Amino acid sequence: METPLRKAQFFIVFLTLLSLAFAPLLHNTRAQSVSSEVDVHTAILQAVEYLKTQQNDDGGIRWIDESSSVAVSVRVVLALAASRLPQEVLTSSQGLTPVDYLANQGYDWIFQSENGESELNLARAGQLLTAVAAANQDPYAFGSERINLPYLINDQYDPNSGVFGKATPNNVTDQVWAILGLASAYASVPQDSVTWLSQAQQADGSWDDGFGSTLDMTPLAVMALLSSDYLHENDPEILLALDFIGENQQSNGGWQTEWDSTTSANVTGMILQSLYAAGHQLTDPLWTKEDGSPLDALLHIQQENGAFGADYINAYGTADGILGLSDQPLYDLGHVRRVGRAFAFVFDAQDDDGGWGSTGQTLDVIIAAQAAGWDPQTIAINDRSPLTFLANNLEAYIASGPDAIGKSIIGLVAPGQDPTNFNGLNLVQALIESYNPDTAAFGDPENTWHQALSLLGLKAANVEIPEGALQTLLDLQREDGGWEYATGFGTWADSTALALQALLASGLSSGDDAIQNGFNYLRGQQLESGGWGDASTTSFVIMALNASDLHPDEWRTQSNGTPIPDLFTYQKPSGAFMFSEDFVDDNLMATTAALLALIGGHYYIQHTFEVPTNSVGLVIQDEQDTITTACVNIEGKSISGLALLKNSGIPYEDQDGFINSIMNRSNPQDGTLYWSYWHWDGREWIFHTSGAGDIDVLPGNLEAWYLVSWERFPSPPPEYTPHIQVICGENQLKNYAAQPYLHYYDLNKTAANVNQAQKFSVKPYSQDIESTTTDPQSETKPLSTTPLIIIGVLGVLVIALVVWLLFRKK
Q1: Does residue 119 share a domain with residue 26?
Q2: Within this chain, do residues 252 and 383 fall inside the same structural domain, yes or no?
Q3: Residue 807, in any domain of the structure
């Protein structure tokens, strides 16, 4: 018979065993709750304060001694961008930032001048490119030397093997950073290079850097693969790598190498970067161990001065610690990549009828695409463009009110259509007829959107705005400086931003009281994060800033939040923007509004309705890198490449379909030069594999002839980076069919002209140029037939080999 004492002993033992069984679960719950209470942003700001103490007068950041380090400065630039902080947060006593330091010292660093060498270090070039892209600098003419970083990296690529630089399966450093750099800048990544990196993965899921530092290299390799968009988070290579990372995680949630005694800020920071790239988060239960989460581990090694580190405390580890807390992979920070991915999402969502579901959404796409430089008529499925969709649906849409008519006029004028005669509709007349002189209003006199979009539509159509209509919109402004959607709704930032665009279009200056009061209202509504609570509202405010020539970066809060980084917080891995944290689905309306804002656009369109010119940009680059450009107007829907050259007026000589000479530049006696022919796809030059006479060139295309040696196969592309509007003027839009990709110069057209002109001797073609151009080789000959003979012999050998293998198989 059991005594009360034995029952009590049994009960105590039972409770002890029960507590032991549930201890890990309870501990994990505690660890997660501790992590959730920590203000990560505060930890980042404290780390930035430490970095300020490590900055030198030249703008660079120190590492192991008192001199500035390019490697550390690269990481710091990435850390600031990933934390959505402006680079100016770190400004030296001389007014210089880490970006300025990279601009001055980056060239010497990638060419290893500290070792007395002049050989390009490809891994360094890739690292520098990631920082340049993250800081939204010009990657095609960066720094005092105007370095074209994508060109340098691609010049070290072997398409026959898929290898960048000196990469080997035992040291993938060059391969990883080349891919990361190109992907960061939204440049093309060769698919074979990604395949090679995948195949270099070791059996345990890791990659090596040549020194056995697999924990350092593996997260970078994971990011490189995912950044290429050829692999995704559920592919076997990624899952195997994550297994390797998980097997090496410490019980405190962090990671360390064999020479660390505790959590390494560098390794843990980069591994967290790779987890973000794979869609994981800091506090995911999968990565929470018995003694804490990765967040706990990182915060545990943050020092009182803000630095991250334990065995080694320096700016390098601190920057990597910030990257680990940032929740953004380092390759996905630059505006060009993020805007380009958003446009890709939008264009992929186009319906078979040429539109995007509704007329209003289709108009939004047209306005955003045109602002980015594309001709919306060339964005087509089965020859059905957005304008095809409008022709079939616009009449029903404009019946909904004057706001719809005004927006339709803006959407038609942007790509050069005539709103007084579109598919038999006179939208301007319809808008004027909606105006009531008695109420001095369009539609509902108390509706801000009716009045604002009507005024913007009239301005776009170059029609005089009734004075009474302007006063009606002014009278709708409330005492707090804002506008309501309609009376009784309460003032809101998006309605205020739209009204401000309409007032600016109507002739008010930025100094007028109504404008000033409106912007003061928007300032008062700005959140500390830098935005206005959702993607659409934030986008509309940025549009108003764009229309008034106010830079969004100047609207900085006390926490260093600014509008554009805040807007990007709503972007999803798909490239789309969600509306808000409460409505997280891909949202086409929010995405198109964000795109228009991010590319500097607004609804204040000042075009006269002129059909875009029917022109093609032509680039001639000789072996001395002298650039000649020409804008060639064509008749009809296309022209052959050979006819394009002829119509340009640029002198050339051909023989049997081969171009021997252009502008008197040709292959010298016993030389190996030939004129290669290329087209621009929006972000890189693509070699034409057919003869120029067989190529159909469309209006809005960019074509190039480049004099190079046939001894190098495949031939390198021209280094000159073009833009159609620099060559042919603002009225020539890009052809989407030929140029589907967004480029840095699409967002920075001034840089396209200035930076490339500083790097190259660029001249538009004229007879004066032609008459003064002389050939340094007085004796020339037709292009050598040797390359054709070699190609022919190789073809015969391949055929013979195939036949032999077939006979052997039989």
Answers
A1: no
A2: no
A3: no
Which CATH number characterizes residue 748's domain? 2.170.130.30
Q: What residue numbers bound the domain in which 72 lies?
A: 38-333
Which of 215, 142, 213 has its CA nearest to residue 184? 142
**CA neighbor of 477 nearest in space, from 507, 520, 509, 436:** 520
Structure tokens that stand for 326 in this block = 């940032």
Query: Is there a contact between 169 and 206 (Cβ–Cβ < 8 Å)?
Result: no
pLDDT band for 611, please (50, 70, 90 cuts): low
Three-class secondary structure of residue 26 per DSSP: helix
Q: Are residues 372 and 512 both part of a single domain? A: yes
Structure confidence at residue 552 (pLDDT): 95
The single residue listed with the structure tokens 């409460």 is: 582
Question: Is 70 a member of any domain?
Answer: yes
Using CA atoms, how far apart are residues 459 and 493, in angstroms rounded to an integer?
Answer: 23
Q: How confident is the model at residue 612 (pLDDT cuts 50, 70, 90)?
A: low
Residues 422 and 542 reside in one and the same domain: yes
- CB-based contact 295:282 (threshold 8 Å): yes
Give yes or no for a contact between 95 and 151, defined as CB atoms under 8 angstroms apart.
no
Question: Of 333, 368, 385, which residue constitutes the final position of a domain?
Answer: 333
Residue 515: HSE in the Cβ half-sphere, 13 Å Cα cutoff: 18
Burial 183-195 (b: 16+ CB within 10 A, else e): bbbbbbbbebbbe
What's the CA gap between 451 and 430, in Å, rounded? 14
Lowest pLDDT segment from 4-13, 33-42, 454-463, 801-810: 4-13
Cβ atoms of residues 347 and 355 within 8 Å = no
Is residue 571 located within the same domain as residue 632? no
Alpha helices, DSSP H, located in 688-735: 724-728
For residue 298, is it left (φ>0), alpha (ψ between -120 and 50) or beta?
alpha
CA angle 297, 298, 304 (to 5 degrees): 115
Side chain identity at residue 338, one-letter code: R
Please classify residue 361 by burial: count the beta carbons closer than 10 Å to its beta carbon, then call 0-12 exposed, 13-18 middle and 19+ buried: middle
Closest residue by Cα to residue 658 from 648, 645, 671, 649: 645
Q: Is the dihedral of CA 323, 324, 327, 329 positive or negative?
A: positive
DSSP state of 647: H
Strand pairing class (61-62; 702-709): unpaired
CB 294 within 8 Å of CB 33: no
Q: Write out pLDDT tens, residues 462-483.
A: 999 998 999 999 999 999 999 9
Residue 307: its H or E element: none
Residue 77 has pLDDT above 80, yes or no: yes
Decide: 297 and 286 in contact? Cβ < 8 Å. Answer: no
Domain shared by 77 and 3, yes or no: no
Asked if residues 775 and 665 have their Cβ atoms less than 8 Å apart, the reply is: yes
- Give yes or no: residues 302 and 445 share one domain: no
The CATH number linked to 78 is 1.50.10.20
Number of domains comprising the chain: 4
Residue 474 near residue 514 (C-beta atoms within 8 A): yes
- Tell me if the bond preceding 437 is cis, omega within 30° of 0: no
